[in-house]
Every structure is written in structure tokens, then in C-alpha cells.
Amino acid sequence: DALWAQIGKVLDLFTPEECANYFASCGYVNKQTKNALGREDPCGLDLD
Fold first, then answer.
1. Residue 6 CA, distance from chain mean position
2. Quick one: which of 45, 21, 22 has its CA closest to 33?
3. How many CA atoms lie within 13 A of 5 on its CB side?
4. Within 10 A of 30 (CB to CB), how many other CB atoms are there?
5. How far is 18 from 32, CA to CA, in rounded Å?
6. What does DSSP assign to residue 24?
7. How far apart are CA 5 and CA 26, in angstroms?
8. CA-CA distances (angstroms) from residue 48 to 17, 19, 43?
9. With left for phi above 0 and alpha for psi between -120 and 50, is residue 38 left, alpha or beta?
10. Which of 10, 14, 35, 37 could form a disulfide with 18 if both were Cys (CB 3.0 to 4.6 A apart)?
11. Which domain of life is it from (predicted)?
12. pLDDT the model gives residue 20
């Protein structure tokens, strides 16, 4: 449990936009525009 708590603290150091930029720079593309709740995804990526 302590490990997961520490991982959660580390993840809180980064904004969703920073994470999206990291994945985009690695070549990953997210063509999904809505999240699982049907809301617009602020980190939707499309590098095409």
C-alpha cells in the first residue's frame, strides 16, 4: 500500500497536459476525443 501511495504522490507532480506532451513526443497518438465518462478529453492528441 505504501508503494502505491508514493506512486500517487509522484503522479500528482505532473499535469495531464505534461503527460500528454510526453506521450506525444514519444510518438503515441490518442484519437479519442472523449473520456470514459463521455466528457471532452483535454489531452486528446492527434499527430497526423
1. 18
2. 45
3. 2
4. 14
5. 18
6. H
7. 27
8. 19, 19, 15
9. left
10. 14
11. Bacteria
12. 83
